[in-house]
Amino acid sequence: MNSTQAIQAAVEFIQSTMDDLDDEALTITQTHMQEVISQLQRLPQASGSNYGTLWSIDDLRSLRPAWSDEKLTDSMESRESDISDRQCEDGWETIGYLLEDEDL
Structure pTM? Predict the structure, then answer.
């Protein structure tokens, strides 16, 4: 199963779970489930292998242990594009450097 299929399966599972909840439970969990679906749909999707870095709240907490999960998430989300751009630049540079020896 590739990442696209895994994400689709997770989204379908969450949506079917929401359909099975009673009104009170649905009200409590609907917002959370929609956020999870949104996060899953934003994950990198490709038909083959992905090589890259995904950051977690725990990674960020190691740098800012006093910050709340909400503050860590907000901080990363507001810088998401900058982080992605920099990782891409550094990734291409690293890949080029590592593959130089293979051209010999």
Answer: 0.46
Q: Say whether both 3 and 37 belong to one domain.
A: yes
- Both tokens of 19, joined, read 């359909």
Spell out the residues 6+ positions from residue 3 whose beta carbon is closer than 8 angstroms to its own.
43, 44, 45, 46, 50
Same domain, 37 and 72: no
List the structure tokens of 82.
């900058």
Angle of CA points 11, 15, 19, to nearest 5°: 170
How confident is the model over 87-102, as pLDDT tens digits? 888 888 988 888 887 7
To 5 degrees, how large is the angle CA 50–CA 53–CA 56? 125
In which domain, by residue range, is 66 found?
Answer: 51-104
d(CA 37, CA 7): 9
What does residue 45 show for φ and ψ, rounded to 5 degrees? -125, 135
Give the relative orientation of helices 23-42 and 3-19 as an angle to the nearest 10 degrees: 170
Of 4-8, 37-41, 63-67, give the range with the top mean pLDDT: 63-67
